[in-house]
Amino acid sequence: MAAFFAFLGPFHTAFAFAGTLIVLCFILTSLYFFAKNVFVFYLAEPLGLTVDFKNLGKWAVVTGATDGIGKAYAFDLARRGCNVILVSRTLEKLEDVAKEIEAKYPKIQTKVIAVDFTEDESVYDKVRHALQDLEIGTLINNVGMGHPYPEYFHKLAGGEEFMLKMIRCNCVSQTLMTRIVLPGMVKRGKGVVVSLSSAAGEYPVPFLAVYSGTKAFNDFLGRSLEQEYRDKGVIFQVVQPFMVATNLSGTRKTNLFILGAQEYARSCLNSVGWFTKTNGHPSHALQNWVGAVVPAFLRSKIMYAGMTSWHKAVVNKLKKKGTYKEE
């Protein structure tokens, strides 16, 4: 043993230096992470250093705009001076949101487009016709749907048809909506396209496999397009929220880590142009930072244990009610 340590002797200084360098790099990157998040999310707007959305184009388009994050994006874009085109499934709800925006911001114009993004690609003809000749400066690709509850892939309620609806809503919508508005942005040399992904698109989530997969698609689509168009004047951003208090998340309670939709959307819009990919708020960025530090094998075990427990609790509850159906 003494001979072994004697052998290591000459390398001791090199090992010590490498260890010190690794620790120093970790400290510096952590400080940079916290400093940039504080600046972007808390100081950029008061200092007037956020994107001026109203100068990118006369209109902003928000999909999934009748509730949750989408509705909050629409209101905050109106606050920033943008006319807003609201796109969602139910005309009555769209008209209600449009009236709310115009009542709160009398100088802002609104338009509504009622389409069901779970249907086939023919719905985009209606969208394309409604948007033609309009100067679209901002697109918020927000519309999305999730699982009714955590379930094994082969037992997923609704089967293949439900899976296809989710893929159409979560993936096809972002692809084709971007395809519709992007030529005008490229022609003018300016614009913003925001793609709502999810933390479930960063980390694989068992029992929510289809949702997790579609959100990973959103992430890669947005980041690939950012590289493709970064010299064309068009800003692309991918947003990966953790829990936000919306109907989709199933909770309306807020705390330090579960934010209200309005606070979250405002924070996200402040980060456009600063972050190509963001969790949208410092508390969500912190959750992601912690998740990234945890080794992948351990994170996977923790995720599986948590989702298994949730799945069992929901299934047992449904069985007691007699509403659980085996696919």
Automatic annotation (TrEMBL):
<keyword id="KW-0812">Transmembrane</keyword>
<dbReference type="InterPro" id="IPR002347">
    <property type="entry name" value="SDR_fam"/>
</dbReference>
<keyword id="KW-0175">Coiled coil</keyword>
<dbReference type="GO" id="GO:0016491">
    <property type="term" value="F:oxidoreductase activity"/>
</dbReference>
<keyword id="KW-0472">Membrane</keyword>
<protein>
    <submittedName>
        <fullName>Very-long-chain 3-oxoacyl-CoA reductase-B</fullName>
    </submittedName>
</protein>
<feature type="transmembrane region" description="Helical">
    <location>
        <begin position="14"/>
        <end position="35"/>
    </location>
</feature>
<dbReference type="Pfam" id="PF00106">
    <property type="entry name" value="adh_short"/>
</dbReference>
<dbReference type="InterPro" id="IPR036291">
    <property type="entry name" value="NAD(P)-bd_dom_sf"/>
</dbReference>
<dbReference type="GO" id="GO:0005783">
    <property type="term" value="C:endoplasmic reticulum"/>
</dbReference>
<feature type="coiled-coil region">
    <location>
        <begin position="84"/>
        <end position="111"/>
    </location>
</feature>
<dbReference type="InterPro" id="IPR051019">
    <property type="entry name" value="VLCFA-Steroid_DH"/>
</dbReference>
<keyword id="KW-1133">Transmembrane helix</keyword>
<comment type="similarity">
    <text>Belongs to the short-chain dehydrogenases/reductases (SDR) family.</text>
</comment>
<keyword id="KW-0521">NADP</keyword>
<keyword id="KW-0560">Oxidoreductase</keyword>
